[in-house]
Amino acid sequence: MVVWIWKEELGDLMTVEQWRAICENDVAFDGQFFYAVSSTRIFCRPSCKSRTPKFENVEVFLDAADAIAAGYRPCKRCKSGGERLPDVEWVAQVEAFVREHYREHLTLSRIADGCHGSAYHLHRVFKAQTGMTPLDFVHVVRIREACVLLETTEMRVMEIGAAVGMPNAAQFATLFKRTQGVTPSGYRKTWKGLDGDEDGVL
Is-catalytic flag, 147? Predict the structure, then answer.
C-alpha cells in the first residue's frame, strides 16, 4: 500500500517512500522522480548528496521538464537536468545566494551546499569566472550593504557590522578600512560632509 503525505503548503502529495529516498539519498529512486526545493529554486535527483531540505520546502516532479517548467533550475551537483549547468549560470546562482544570505554565517562549505556543489569546485569555478573567491564576494556584498547603512541610518558601527553578518566589530572595522581606505565612522562623516576621522569602532 502506498502511503501519501499531504503537503498543505504546496497543495501537493508526496509518498512516504519518496521522502525517505530524499532523506537517505537513495539512488534506487533516480529516474522515478525529482524533488525541487522552493527556498533555493533548484531541483535534484533523490540521490543528490546536498543537505536534506526542509519537508515544507519540497515539491515532487515526475520528470525534469516539469520542474524546469515550474521555474526550478537543475542541480549542479547531481546534474538533474541531464547536462552540466554552464559555469556562468552557476556563478550567477552563487552570487544570488550570497546576496540573500550575507547576514548569516557563511563559509565556503555553506555556500557550496546551498548551491549544490562541492567547496573545491565552487572555489575554482567562481574565481575563474569572477577573478575573486566566493568569500571575497561575500565581503564585497557585506561592505556594500554596510556603506548603505552608514549613509542612511544612525545605527552604531558595531550594530551595522552585526547587521551585515560580521558581529566581530574589530574584524568588521579592519575589513572596511582595508577595502574602503577609511574606517566606518570616517566614511559616515565624509558622507555627511564632515571631516573624516581615523577612529576605530564607535
Answer: no
In a domain, 97, yes or no: yes
For the entire predicted model, the pTM comes to 0.63
Helical pair 184-191 and 169-180, crossing angle rounded to 10 deg: 60
Please state, in angstroms and rounded to a whole number, the distance separating the CA atoms of residues 10 and 6: 9
- Residue 53's domain spans which residues? 4-74
Q: Are 35 and 43 in contact (CB under 8 A)?
A: yes
User: Which one of 23, 44, 78, 147 is the catalytic residue?
Assistant: 44
Residue 12 phi, psi (nearest 5): -130, 165
The torsion defined by the Cα of 40, 43, 45 and 51, in degrees rounded to 10, comes to: 0
Query: Collapsing DSSP states into helix, strand and coil, what is residue 70?
Result: coil
**Domain at 60, CATH number:** 3.40.10.10
Kindly report, residue by residue over 143-196, the tens digit of the pLDDT. Answer: 999 999 999 999 999 999 999 999 999 999 999 999 999 999 999 998 887 654
